């Protein structure tokens, strides 16, 4: 594979950089967190108007068919600005599984609205690798009656609905689209490390009609979706780490200590170099996994995504700590920009399983995972 972006992806990168750079300034991000509930509706509309929300979707669903390499390129730029919009949870957690597994009626009902920004559907697939669905369901005719609670669903406040797996009374798994205003569904906003808009969802005998159940094997749909969500999180973490490192390099080069720049101290340079290596590891493993998915090599991608998520978790936390420590006392100031990157890095590191959980899941599949460099 090629580790450099092609011309089309460079154009996507430039466009995403312009949109996020213009609308997700530090001042604007703070304003959204404090006065708008952590969701930037203005930026969301701009992303839709520019065509970025539909970029990864197949052309048959109104997208540009640029796959995970396209989506991860956008998310990388979002991470550089810690922009408070639900790109990964809406596109990877809802739009992609609907476009791939939904009926024509489901695709027509939901996907165009996601692409134009008028509908926000978020995915609720959180949990450590290997964990079963948090919600349970009883089949009543063609409908499902769902109960249970999910402690934290990304970007659930204000969403029109949630795409979520449920375990049925016959031990099968179904993936459903549950309306946020369905009787029996309670949405309670919660505070999270990254200061984004999350909520706890409680289902008390919520009825989901057959028309809102994705056809097919729910277990396979859920794993297919989680694979893409984990990769999307790794791409977002890459952007967070890149900008954290850039800000730290600028600060230590300008900060004078004993008559010379802080960056000239060997200990500072070594820590920054280690952070750079971690950031590059996230980049290379993430892009390899995205390329495998886009070329249809799902079995290889299964392991590759877990490797990328491991680096995004372990390496991402190390980069965040390095950036904060090398900023000295100002790094602990919660109003200073670097602190926000530290918080985002920790939030992303543990979403859908931290480093240890990812490593354990990787160990479970190593006996069937294709070797690097194997023929085929």
Defining key terms:
two-stranded antiparallel sheet, 9 strands, 53% helix
Tell me what the structure shows.
With 376 residues, the chain is of the alpha+beta class. The chain contains eleven helices and nine strands. It has helices at residues 7-23, 26-35, 41-49, 67-81, 87-101, 104-115, 218-254, 266-294, 298-326, 337-350, 355-365, and strands at residues 121-123, 135-140, 143-154, 161-168, 173-179, 185-190, 198-208, 256-257, 260-261. The strands form two sheets. Strands 1, 2, 3, 4, 5, 6 and 7 form a seven-stranded mixed beta sheet that branches. α1 runs antiparallel to α3 (41-49), α8 runs antiparallel to α9 (298-326) and α9 (298-326) runs antiparallel to α10. The radius of gyration is 21 Å and the shape is globular. The two termini are 13 Å apart.
Low-confidence stretches: none
Distance between the termini: 13 Å
Mean pLDDT: 93
Radius of gyration: 21 Å
Secondary structure tally, helices: 11
Q: What can be said about the biggest beta sheet?
A: 7 strands, mixed
Percent of residues in helices comes to 40-55%
User: What gross morphology would you assign?
Assistant: globular
What pattern of helices and strands is seen along the backbone?
A: HHHHHHEEEEEEEHEEHHHH
Total beta strands: 9
Q: What structural class should be given to the helix and strand makeup?
A: alpha+beta
Amount of beta strand: 15-25%
């Amino acid at each position: 594979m090629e580790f450099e972006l092609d011309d089309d992806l460079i154009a996507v990168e430039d466009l995403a950089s312009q949109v996020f750079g213009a609308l997700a300034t530090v001042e604007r991000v703070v304003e959204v967190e404090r006065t708008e509930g952590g969701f930037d509706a203005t930026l969301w509309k701009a992303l839709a108007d520019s065509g970025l929300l539909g970029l990864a979707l197949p052309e048959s669903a109104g997208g540009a068919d640029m796959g995970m390499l396209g989506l991860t390129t956008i998310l990388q730029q979002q991470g550089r600005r810690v922009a408070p919009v639900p790109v990964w949870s809406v596109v990877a957690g809802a739009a992609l599984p609907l476009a791939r597994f939904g009926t024509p009626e489901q695709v027509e009902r939901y996907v165009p609205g996601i692409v134009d920004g008028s509908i926000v559907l978020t995915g609720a697939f959180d949990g450590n690798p290997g964990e079963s669905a948090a919600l349970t369901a009883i089949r009543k005719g063609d409908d499902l009656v769902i109960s249970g609670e999910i402690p934290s669903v990304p970007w659930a406040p204000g969403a029109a609905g949630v795409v979520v797996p449920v375990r049925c009374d016959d031990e099968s798994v179904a993936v459903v689209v549950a309306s946020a205003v369905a009787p029996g569904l309670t949405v309670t906003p919660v505070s999270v490390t990254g200061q984004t808009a999350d909520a706890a969802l409680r289902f008390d005998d919520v009825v989901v009609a057959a028309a809102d159940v994705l056809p097919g094997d729910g277990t396979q749909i859920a794993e297919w979706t989680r694979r893409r969500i984990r990769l999307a999180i790794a791409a977002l973490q890459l952007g967070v780490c890149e900008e954290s490192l850039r800000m730290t390099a600028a600060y230590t080069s300008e900060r004078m200590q004993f008559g010379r720049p802080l960056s000239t101290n060997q200990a500072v340079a070594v820590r920054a170099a280690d952070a750079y290596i971690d950031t590059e590891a996230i980049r290379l493993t993430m892009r390899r996994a995205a390329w495998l998915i886009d070329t249809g090599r799902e079995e290889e991608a299964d392991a590759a995504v877990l490797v990328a998520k491991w680096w995004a978790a372990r390496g991402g936390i190390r980069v965040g700590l390095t950036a904060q420590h090398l900023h000295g006392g100002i790094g602990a100031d919660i109003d200073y920009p670097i602190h926000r990157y530290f918080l985002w890095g920790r939030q992303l590191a543990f979403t859908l399983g931290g480093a240890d959980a990812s490593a354990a899941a990787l160990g479970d599949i190593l006996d069937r995972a294709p070797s690097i460099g194997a023929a085929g």
